[in-house]
Amino acid sequence: MVSRVIPVDPFDLVIFGATGDLAQRKILPGLYRRFHAGQMPQGARIIGAARSAMEPEAFREQVRKAIAEFVDRSKIDAKDVETFLECIDYVPVDAMGEGGWAELKDKVQDGRVHAFYFSVAPSLFGPLAERLNEHGIADSEARIVVEKPFGRDLASAKALNATLAAHFEESQIYRIDHYLGKETVQNLMAVRFANILFEPLWNAQYVDHVQITVAETVGVGGRGAYYDKSGAMRDMVQNHLMQLLCLIAMEPPYHFDPDAVRDEKVKVIRALQPVSPADIVRGQYAGVKASETRAAQPGYLEDSENPDSRTESYIALKVHVANWRWQGTPFYLRTGKKLRGRASEIAITFKAPPHSIFDEEDASWPENVLVIRLQPNEGMNLKVMIKEPGPGGMRLVQVPLDMSFAEALGEEGTDIPDAYERLIMDVIRGNQTLFMRGDEVEAAWAWTDPIIAGWEARGDRPRSYDPGSSGPEDALMLMHRDGRRWREIRE
């Protein structure tokens, strides 16, 4: 199978915070990969902007090093790298002042797509939006890309939306969540809405429960001070896991259109029931003392440099969507750091057949499960029951119908663009389907805020859990009391 690469129109992309970690690790290497693939036209220009006083040539050297470090060697072509670097420019800009804005305006060309990527702290979103308009750099067709966190509660999200709306139309604002750029996430919509096989079964009558897991093996590390002000609920559940939940639970949109898709996602968020304290488990990873077989590891309290921290590095929730399609079907969400393995997956567990025609000992079969793997090894897996080969009666065994992109699509399947690559190209095309709308962000915070306020008012402390485990024991009980089990997190 040969994948099609459709070039985009010539553009000017200004990256604010271009010397920062995200730009150097993801955005600039991703743009090179799109150039190498033939999607980014040679007439395109990428203008780095940051506080650092730096000549354009010095910035190009930074980009060259970022490509060497973060791009697979098989994609690095010396001629392509040099041609790509010719597209790169740099302007020192003071986001809070007036320095550099006139120079930036001179570099942005008329008659092409203009996009401005705010790879900066949220406190700078407003000043950047204001100055882009004050200096006449952004026109009515310009697009701005803003990174999470988009607020830390409903009030701050509303204030940020209002600030951006004062300078840009909603159709110009691209709130980026890189999870929505993953190939498998988009394939989830194709599986649901392009095949008659699943959609008739995609409801409470046939689905027993849904598990959404995002597990990480790393701790908070150097982000400890920042992370301690957010925690897993704000950092992961309110955005990433919420988006995955919406794609699973949403109704079919009337058309694959940005607003049609986002309308249905907002309906899901607004249908979420309040979560009982009994259906929430929070945890913090503990430290490990040195031994003959294991090196010492700091715990969350050490990493956050806050010995009295009540911020969670792990959270599990049982959630219900109060509508006709999903009434009574629980959605179990969990995410955490320093767990046993690195995995992001959605598992839809279907109900058992209503009656067994086979021997009594075979009546308690494992359920059919559709697993969508986001990482690692993106793909889908459907577990079904078949007869075990051989004589001696009807013995049933569960086997996977497995589709990994690498195996199903051959070499093309291994060359899956990074989420940031796809999303930036969607910005250039003007396609907002995979970006969050303002009312969607606010609806998510309106559901999240009471949950956070509840445990803060109760003074709840997170449960301690061992690094390399599956999380706190209480999270296991969250499932066990319902007669269910979490899927194993593999190393």
Automatic annotation (TrEMBL):
Reaction(s) this enzyme catalyzes, per UniProt: D-glucose 6-phosphate + NADP(+) = 6-phospho-D-glucono-1,5-lactone + NADPH + H(+)
Q: Which PROSITE patterns does the record associate with it?
A: G6P_DEHYDROGENASE
Every Glucose-6-phosphate dehydrogenase NAD-binding domain range = 14-187
- Keyword terms of this UniProt record: Carbohydrate metabolism, Glucose metabolism, NADP, Oxidoreductase
Q: Which InterPro entries match?
A: G6P_DH (IPR001282), G6P_DH_AS (IPR019796), G6P_DH_C (IPR022675), G6P_DH_NAD-bd (IPR022674), NAD(P)-bd_dom_sf (IPR036291)
- The enzyme's first-digit EC class, named in words, is oxidoreductase
Its GO CC terms are: cytosol
Q: Where does substrate bind?
A: H178, K182, E216, D235, K337
Task: Write down the EC number.
Answer: 1.1.1.49
Against Pfam families, the record matches this protein to: G6PD_C, G6PD_N
Give the highest taxon in the source lineage: Bacteria
* A GO molecular-function descriptor: glucose-6-phosphate dehydrogenase activity
The active site is formed by H240 (proton acceptor)
BP-aspect Gene Ontology terms: glucose metabolic process; pentose-phosphate shunt, oxidative branch
Similarity comment text for this entry: Belongs to the glucose-6-phosphate dehydrogenase family.
Q: What does this protein do?
A: Catalyzes the oxidation of glucose 6-phosphate to 6-phosphogluconolactone.
What protein is this chain from? Glucose-6-phosphate 1-dehydrogenase
The organism of origin for this protein = Rhodobacter aestuarii
